[in-house]
Amino acid sequence: MPQQKTRQLLTDVARQLFARKGFENTTMNDIAEASGKGRRTLYTYFKSKDEVYSAVINGELMRISSTFLAVARKQLPPLEKLVELLFAHLSLMKEAVERNGNLRAEFFRNIWQVERVRKKYDKKERDIFAKTLEEGQRAGVFDIDNLELYTDIIQGCARGLEVPYIYGRLGFGMNIEVTRPIVTKILRKALGRERNLVL
Q: What is the pLDDT of residue 195?
């Protein structure tokens, strides 16, 4: 337990430094000094700054994943839940990037590293999208002939919208009250048995 707390402290301190100074301008010495733990302790937990960065991204993705799971547990009709999940995905990614200040640029510059850490969370998210689509299919609300493909498309769309959403370029900065009915309409047309879909 003390080891876990120390690792978490080092990760939290690193995240704050990365957010304030950026990844490139933060050294392992900075992290060791700011944590009050020293270089020897830091290197016991992390071999390199890249490892620390991966731990920071992992921590952010854990936060996102737990919130996303809470949305998935809501008792909502399938279409409403799917819309809620898509907006949760985008909002949580935007919040994570904005919360981390200067790390925002690194998030996009080191996208390969983010992708590597992100794989297991993407799998969890994909399972949630698939379950929601399956619920709609069983309820006779969604007309889906290939669950795997539809799931890939929904998740791919969510991921493809992240950068424009984060930078406020999606729909020229339209707010959620404007975009939500449009997204609902698109999903209703793409997935639904029109006569059964009421939202």
A: 44
